[in-house]
């Protein structure tokens, strides 16, 4: 994992007031309207929590124990919220779309590749924290998020 490229690229697109993650939720709800009702909180609050989560993961990329403990717990909470495997692909796609939009011409394919890898790894660890029955894709198909 290219920690330096992840950090540099996040710095490039990390707007004040969680602007990146606010834009991320706009894109997510536009492309995948079926997931919108899952979110109960104000988008700004949610965006700030997601920003903190992303920065914390980057801060601990070399700390496998931290990643496992925290992302398994976060995964478990997401299982109980009804978040399914295909939704992680949707989230990664929309996060990278927001980053690429904000980064403009400075955003490179290498940055996209680095974030695809990182968000894929985070999703894998979160899904490892799920109870076995919660990873079925049927629920996602029903919610239209697949
Ligand atoms: C990169 C993967 C993800 C990360 C790092 C992440 C992070 C977070 C964090 C930090 C929270 C705050 C609440 C808590 O700690 O329990 C949260 C809540 C939540 N997440 Fe995620 N999440 C991810 C993927 C997803 C996906 C794929 C979905 C489904 C579309 C999703 C849906 C939700 C919902 C519905 C909540 C609760 C919202 C509420 O309370 O209103 N998350 N997430």
TrEMBL record:
InterPro entries: Globin, Globin-like_sf, Globin/Proto. Pfam families: Globin. It comes from the Bacteria. The keyword Metal-binding applies. Keywords: Heme, Iron, Metal-binding, Oxygen transport, Transport. Signal peptide: none annotated. GO terms for molecular function: FAD binding; heme binding; metal ion binding; nitric oxide dioxygenase NAD(P)H activity; oxygen binding; oxygen carrier activity. One of its GO terms (biological process) is cellular response to nitrosative stress. Residues 1-131 form the Globin domain. The keyword Transit peptide does not apply. Belongs to the globin family. PANTHER family: FLAVOHEMOPROTEIN. This is Globin domain-containing protein.
